[in-house]
Amino acid sequence: MTRTGVYPGTFDPTTNGHLDLIARATRLVDHLVIGVAGNPGKHPMFDVGERIAMIEEEVGRLDNLNGMTFEVRPFDNLLMHFAEEVGASIIVRGLRAVSDFDFEFQMVGMNARLNDEIEIVFLMASENNQFIASSLVKEIARLGGNVTSFVSPQVAKRLMARAVGAK
Would you say residue 137 lies in a domain? Predict the structure, then answer.
């Protein structure tokens, strides 16, 4: 039986923290669906198609890590409905700080009411990635800072091109 998990997020842009969690999720599931949320309320720098392309490029290097396969899909509905659509039994969420836990704790309760058959698993960000937030990476890029320690070289190139173009 294949264990399918969902790792949802905005991924605007994909950071080293996201990739660390994806690689670590390979120990939990056989197939990981990376769900890219539209989230227009967050005013993303990249559209959904661009974010999907970035993630696909990044996880292409991880495919079959620990025998796991990946799939990247957009979603704009409830996370539980998306997890049900893809046949997931686990949702993987990352935690960086106590403030993340406060928000996620509320979400677990709400999502359990929607479907208590899908487990939500939290992975703590590794010590090297606890401080990385996409919003901060975008701000550094917008102000001309060096983002190469937060994202892959390919993402840094896209990010800097977009940040420079936005000025």
Answer: no
Q: What CATH number does residue 96 fall under?
A: 3.40.50.620
Residue 149's alpha-carbon distances to 132, 155, 156, in angstroms, are 10, 11, 9
51, 134, 138, 152: the catalytic one is: 134
**pLDDT tens sequence for the chain (167 residues):** 789 999 999 999 999 999 999 999 989 999 999 999 987 777 899 999 999 999 999 998 876 777 888 999 999 999 999 999 999 999 999 888 767 777 888 888 888 898 999 999 999 888 888 888 899 999 999 999 999 999 999 999 999 999 876 55
Q: Any catalytic annotation for residue 152?
A: no
pTM of the model: 0.91
Cα–Cα distance measured from residue 110 to residue 52, given in angstroms and rounded to the nearest whole number: 27
Q: Which residue in the list 27, 42, 61, 73 is annotated as catalytic?
A: 42
- Confirm whether 134 is a catalytic residue: yes
> Does some domain include residue 146?
no
The reply to whether 93 belongs to the active site is no
Q: Is residue 30 a part of any domain in this protein?
A: yes
Selecting among 31, 96, 142, 162, the annotated active-site residue is 96
Is 43 in the active site?
Answer: no
Q: Is 145 part of a structural domain of the chain? A: no
